[in-house]
Give the backbone structure.
Amino acid sequence: MAGRGRGTEDDGGITAGVSERLLFAGTAPFEATPVSVPVPRPATEILPPDGGASLQPPQLATIDRIRRQFRRASFSAFRLSVSEAAATELDRGIGFLLVPVFLAAGVILYFSLDVEPDLYRPLAAVALMAVCAIISRAWPKTHLAFMAALFCALGFVAAKVETWRAVAPMLGSEIQTRLTGRVVIAEEMANGRVRLTIDLVSTAHPELRYAPDRVRLSARAISSDMKVGSLVTGYARLLPPTGPVRPDSYDFSFDSYFSGIGASGFFLGDPKVVSASGPPFEAGMASAIENARENIADHIRST
């Protein structure tokens, strides 16, 4: 038995020199030893506490290479995820929903310019983008890019055409005059006054050579027989549309321009009805709609 502890060839090929007591005792030589597996750390955490001052140039070059590889892998993963998300959304039809977004981008570009552009170059840009979009239909990504540029150009042209369509004479300075006009809108204000939008027919004392076509005036009160379409007169103080009260704030003159309102102000006395007859035929439908709207509003307020 003593010879079996040496692991000779007679004991069945045991060559490690392990005794029977150790084989059947379940002791440490056959227990699993825990192994410490190093966990890779980000490139920003591999510097020593001194910030890398003790590292040699080859070690610093290795760290820089690891950092570049990490950034490159992160950017590649981000680009892949964006590409997959874009392909999924395009399959769901998101491209059509982006049409008003690119149109609005063209409108914003137009109104952000410091000078008024002409109409010929935007129209040329629309034609060029349309041709490029047709030619590039075989390349989906390029085709989508040209379509986005085409809708931006269309938004730019639409803003230019709307500015040209809404052109209205604007009052240049404050003035008091007697005006006669036809009521387009009559609105009750929270302070009890009435705000009237009036299409000017004539002015007197003094007569304005460059009178605006439409003004918005407030009055303390109006007579009961005054309604939309009535011809009214009164002495009023006219003011040019005000701009923003501070830089980059809301521009009231911008809204007035596209609403066709060339001046605002107030009546110095109560306006009087000259004629309660209806407006001309071309404005009759608009007056009928506005009267119906005011009747509904009066019913809601009274109820």
